[in-house]
Automatic annotation (TrEMBL), chains A, B:
Residues 9-60 form the HTH lysR-type domain. This is LysR family transcriptional regulator. Keywords: DNA-binding, Transcription, Transcription regulation. InterPro entries: LysR_HTH_N, LysR_subst-bd, WH-like_DNA-bd_sf, WH_DNA-bd_sf. It comes from Cohnella lubricantis. Belongs to the LysR transcriptional regulatory family. Gene3D superfamilies: 3.40.190.290, Winged helix-like DNA-binding domain superfamily/Winged helix DNA-binding domain (1.10.10.10). One of its GO terms (molecular function) is DNA-binding transcription factor activity.
Length: 292, 292
DNA sequence: AGGAGATATAAATCTCATCTATGACCAATA
DNA sequence: TATTGGTCATAGATGAGATTTATATCTCCT
């Protein structure tokens, strides 16, 4: 059955308008073309589909049966095309991003707001998780892009470096005497240290750094969120290792201050992860462009 | 939007099989052809529909949305094609016949039985009515064919003469003395006559016939069905004017006998009516062939 | 390293959908 | 009754584009 589905479109319009000429107009064809197409369909099906009269065409019984099916089919295709246009124009669709809590809150939020304002039809799905989880989500196709702390080495992933983050140690008024001083790592370790929980990338980074200088950093307190790091430091429970940009408000208002060190803490980068060799959804592409 | 719906068929199979090569096989095309078609569809929609991998293709988010619509659409087309095949083969469909009660019962019944046995999937619709009603039904497209008593003159109708009917006068044992005799019309009119009701064709025919011989026939009793004509004659209420073929059983068993006349009653014909210049449904064509 | 599978690309081919031109038919006018 | 304006059908010419063949590229698996 090498049926050309194009014929059904012609049939649909002929039946709908009750006129081959009108169908031709609707399809931007000529009347003989439509006439020929209908004849072809009739030949292939082995049935007469229309009565031809001097003022148009009318469906036969059998044509009417066919129409009841084809009409639905055509409506679905029309809906599909509308949906596709909507997806293309970002009037519809969804954007699924994976990232850590803190990155969402402190880094992505303004972009997400901006994106949502510009494309209110696109649904946002934010998936929180650790870096390995994010990568798994990405590989399983459950998110369109991941936002994580660099570096990442994975052959399947496309990485785009974005924003630069600077980590630092901060304290509250309880340790006010340290303001303005420059501490060595050994001196710093005299004070109670508050770090993010063990499995985070920032934690791993700072642990390695201290080791490379011959020190071992053991936190007094371990917490599970950036907010708690900030809160604990403010209340004088210790010195927190945080990302400077994530506490800029506290630094400005003076509820926290940065501890100067005699070594330079290496900057970290935020990386935007996508699957290599896989096309981005239109929504994801739109978002990538926005944060460029 | 000069969208070739054929592309959706290709898309459907590519998505369904998850492989352009397999889709090509299913569609009796080559792989490059399918590859090209998909690319074209993607270009027209402005969206990427598939991820290409080394072991086939997989739908993108947007492709999956499209598929949800197209799948339904294609299924409907498949169903439509199956239905059309069934209609063509008379595994399905309906046959709508209009006719008089007596013609159905005495003339059409065996054909209808035969037709139903041969094409059990075709539904039969029998519409009873007078000749003018039948013609109206036909012109309104409510029946496929009409079975009526000839003659009919109507430019819009196609008439096919069929069976020949012979009308005659019959009586029961009450008038046994007439058996074997040959009566003139005048003699016949001495007896009470039972005729079919005024609007029937048979009634009009016999009235005209008597008039052409200078007589006027006025029935003692008028009835509305052939069955009553028979019953009344049997019970001796008068002499009924009936179609010989419709009372063959009674003539055989002797409960009625035919009255011989000195004039010949003209035979009537059964005509099969269809609309001129309008294609017959497959079912109707099948039936016409059967009763040839 | 090589083979077997997948898809992509390029250029040549040829089908067949479409067009123009015309005919035939019908209905409603003048 | 002839005319006009609408319908669909038919025939032949044409050209766009679908399809094919041949080849490249890539990935996975042995």
């Amino acid at each position: 059955m090498t049926n050309n589905y194009e014929l059904y479109k012609v049939f649909y319009w002929a039946a709908k308008t009750g006129s081959l000429s009108q169908a031709a107009k609707a399809l931007y064809l000529t009347q003989p073309s439509v006439s020929h197409a209908i004849k072809q369909l009739e030949d292939r099906l082995g049935l007469t589909l229309f009565y031809r009269t001097s003022k148009g065409v009318a469906l036969t019984q059998e044509g009417a049966v066919l129409y009841s099916y084809i009409e639905q089919s055509q409506i679905l295709i029309t809906l599909a095309e509308e949906k596709m246009t909507a997806l293309k124009n970002l009037d519809s669709g969804e954007l699924r991003i994976g990232g850590s809590d803190s990155l969402f809150k402190h880094y992505l939020l303004p972009y997400l707001e901006q994106f949502h304002e510009r494309y209110p039809g696109v649904k946002l799905h934010l998936n929180h998780g650790t870096t390995p989880e994010i990568i798994t989500f990405l590989k399983e196709g459950r998110i369109d892009l991941g936002v994580i702390r660099m570096p990442i080495v994975d052959a399947q992933l496309q990485v785009r470096e974005s924003f630069q983050l600077q980590d630092c140690f901060v304290a509250g008024s309880r340790y006010g005497e340290l303001k303005g001083k420059v501490l060595s790592l050994a001196e710093l370790l005299q004070y109670p240290i508050i770090l993010f929980s063990r499995n985070s990338r920032a934690r791993m980074g700072i642990t390695e750094l201290f080791q490379s200088y011959g020190h071992s950093i053991k936190p007094e307190i371990e917490v599970g969120s950036v907010d708690l790091l900030t809160e604990f430091a403010k209340r004088g429970l210790g010195i927190s290792y945080v990302t400077r940009q994530f506490v800029s408000k506290e630094l400005e208002e003076g509820s926290l201050f940065e501890i100067q060190l005699d070594v330079t803490l290496p900057p970290a980068h935020v990386g935007i992860l996508t699957m290599k060799n896989m096309p981005l959804s239109t929504a994801a592409r739109g978002f990538m462009e926005l944060i460029r």
